[in-house]
Amino acid sequence: MMFKRLILVLSLMLAGPAIAVEPSEMLDDPALEARAREVSKELRCLVCRNENIDDSNASLAKELRVLVRDRIAAGDSNEETIDYLVDRYGEYVLLKPTVTGSNLLLYIAGPAMLLIGFGVALFYIRGRNRRSITAPEQLSPDEEARLKEILGR
Amino acid sequence: MIIELGHFALTLAFAVSLVQMVIPLIGAHKGWSGWMAMAEPAAIAQFLLVALSFGALTYAFVSSDFSLSVVVANSHTLKPMIYKVSGVWGNHEGSMLLWVLIVTLFGAMAAWFGGGLPPTLRARVLAVQGSIGAAFMAFVLFTSNPFERLAVPPFDGQDLNPLLQDPGLAFHPPFLYLGYVGLSICFSFAVAALIEGRVDAAWGRWVRPWTLAAWICLTIGIALGSWWAYYELGWGGFWFWDPVENASFMPWLIAAALLHSAIVVEKRESLKSWTILLAIVAFGFSLVGAFITRSGIITSVHAFATDPTRGVFLLLILGVFMGGALTLYAARASAMEAKGVFGLVSRESALVFNNILLAVSAFVVFIGTIWPLVAEMAFDRKLSVGAPFFNMAFTPFMVALGLILPIGAVMPWKRARMGRALRQMAPALVLAVALGGLVFALQTGRSALGPVGVALGAWLVSGAFVDLWIRAGRGPVAGKLLRMTRLPRSDWGKAVAHSGLGITMVGIAGMLAWQQEDIRVAQLGERFEVGQYEIVLETVERIEGPNYISTTATVSAWKNDEQVATLLPEKRVYPVAGMPTTEAALDNGLLRDIYIAIGDPQDGGGWAIRTYIKPLANWIWAGALIMALGGMLSLSDRRVRVAAGARKERGAAPMPAE
Fold first, then answer.
1. Contact B371/A24, CB-based, under 8 Å?
2. Helix (H, G, I), strand (E, B), or coil: what is residue B456?
3. pLDDT of residue B416
4. Where are the domains of chain B?
5. Which residue of B has its CA nearest to A128?
6. What is the phi/psi pair of residue A51, to 5°?
7. Assembly ipTM
8. Looking only at Cα atoms, what is the longest distance across chain B?
9. In the prediction, which pLDDT does B303 show?
10. Which end of chain B has a smaller Cβ tally under 10 Å, C or N?
11. Is the pLDDT of residue B656 over 50?
């Protein structure tokens, strides 16, 4: 099913094939280039389906990659580079949403659900055990019949 | 004529499904055996009719009948035969017909193998399955009809999307659908049990093989898709947390949970209502997946199914089935009184924790997938949720699952002692920690990801072995080994599947932690180093394929002045579809892949070339296949076969109505 995204990406490429990061875009300093790659992985190619600009073949992604490298080469930190892009393109460009406002719900949902799950399970297992001490298990007539049937097979 | 027959067969199947969803249900309610008996022939007839219809569409693709609009849009006379056939499901309409075919296939299988089910339950299961078939046939007939003719047929077609012309992708959708839709039969069992108001160990035993079969197919389907992405994309990613991928991953997680909780129902008659809920939700996620994939609502920037009526129709199906089933569940669940009692430390509890981790991780994937939609509608924020979020939010669940798995697996039912389980697992624990430490010492001081992954994988694999070892009883080693080979296949299946998970974890961690990458412009004959290897770009040639033109490079890889591989990365252009693809070349190895993709010729001479050394890459898919193999072993267990024998006996002398 993942191919659909690719069809899109490729159909968006008007300027012919290109494979993600191209040699001509790369910075000469390996340390800066490594930082640029790291930053690129956090940023969304705006016209693609959930793809980061590092992997994307779209021409817009290429522009963004160059922009990221310009900022880093100009001496911006990783955070400043990301902030710059968020200012320009909005939070839509971030692949990992900020932990602010309504997004807190997104971040809390998983851990909260886990705690609730554990809580309910604990409550259930404990409660069941207590009840079972007062009422020992017995087979219903229905089950007796079934048991006979199974054993007598 | 054949096309019209196919169309007519589908319409007829729709009519049959309507009968199948009503008559047996009334029969089961009133206790009229004649009405109930209607279900089986209806289910089989429905399957045969849809198979005929699917066959007609396949015929249209194979014979390149360009009077059909789907064939024109997705086929071409020059296309190799295998892709003419796979073109049937390489488009929306045809894939929905495949979906319907599988719904009816499972219905027919339930009719064929369901001889041992109590007659009322069987009638209800088939009625519910019939209603699913009816819903999707209505969807196909009214919104996505593959049998639509063109008034003026063109001379040739527009070709199947070149990305789909690949063996990996040819078989990816059928497996995935077998998995998705296989869960429909679990759903039918759950709803039938709710109507029946009775869930017992036998129900667990009936449901489990279906879940297992669906889960195996999903595992294979997802692995194929991920493997395809790995070699086709040109940079070797294998999982992107794309909404469409998540759509297949959520049912997989829930099916895995269902698989385990059904064991508790079968062996201990506990967790009944939870298992029913999981069976409903698992199919619910399949429907959500269909909705996400085909409505284009979540990635609304570039919607695929541009026709909004399809999205609405699918949402309606989702709403009716989930709403109906969950309402029924709310009304009836309290009637499912559990029997088996178990302590806080026991195999049951371990399986409960397994279920919580799997279900919550599926929930995390779900909320991450729909969050952009929720944020836009409720909070007016336009944002994205991508891989960095999922990696952070999802991974801890899998690590926790891996940590508790071997301990839980050796615990006895009802009441266990933690100390004893830990003592039994001590050798595995020592081995895992030692291996993790060794790897940490060997790697050049980078992330903890690699060592943790290796330790976790070793823990799972050796833990599975220790489990078998303990099951073989006491005594001399030779006797133990012999007894080990005679353990039931379900024990082996469990051990194999759990090892597979460990192997996948090692593969993912190893590849992400130690991958090496090189992007450069290489001149012909230039030699450059990537990791331990030296790479030489030998030649670049233009080659014509059957329906594409290729630029093929010949690249040799050397290690210690010995040639280890010759790779032929390609760039292809499919003139009919007017679309380029990258065909990366791989040298597969047990410990590493050499992965090379060729790019454009550069202005100053030379070619852009990307080289990756991907350690342990194949372990990811090998692990997934081993998981599926474990599932198959478990499915072939004597217990399942014996139960099949018992069914026949009881089928001959039906029990009095309960």
1. no
2. helix
3. 85
4. 1-160, 204-212+225-416, 516-618
5. B341
6. -110, 140
7. 0.84
8. 86
9. 41
10. N
11. no
Q: How far is B245 from chain A (nearest CA, A)?
A: 6
| DSSP class of B116 | G
Which positions 572-611 of B are in contact with A (Cβ < 8 Å)? 573, 579-582, 597, 599-600, 602, 608, 610
Cβ-contact B97, B56 below 8 angstroms: no
Q: Best mutation site among B360, B364, B373 for testing chain A: the one with the most A CBs within 10 Å?
A: B360
Which chain B residues in 345-374 lie under 8 Å from chain A, judged by CB atoms? 349, 352-353, 356-357, 359-360, 363-364, 367-368, 371
| DSSP letters spanning chain A | -THHHHHHHHHH--S----SS-GGGS-SSHHHHHHHHHHHTTBB-TTSSS-BTTT--SHHHHHHHHHHHHHHHTT--HHHHHHHHHHHH-GGGBSS--SSTTHHHHHHHHHHHHHHHHHHHHHHHHHHHHHHHHS-----HHHHHHHHHHHT-
Whether the pLDDT of residue A137 is over 70: the answer is: no
CATH for A3-93 is 1.10.8.640
State the amino acid at position B354 in one-letter form: N
Q: List the domain boundaries for chain A.
A: 3-93, 103-151
For residues B213 and B290, give the distance between their C-alpha atoms in angstroms, rounded to a whole number.
20
Checking if the pLDDT of B653 tops 60, the result is: no
Which residues of A are less than 8 Å from B234 in CB distance? 19-20
A11 has a chain B CB within 8 A of its CB: yes
Dihedral of alpha carbons B347, B348, B350, B351, sign: positive
SS3 B199: coil
Quote the pLDDT of residue A132: 56
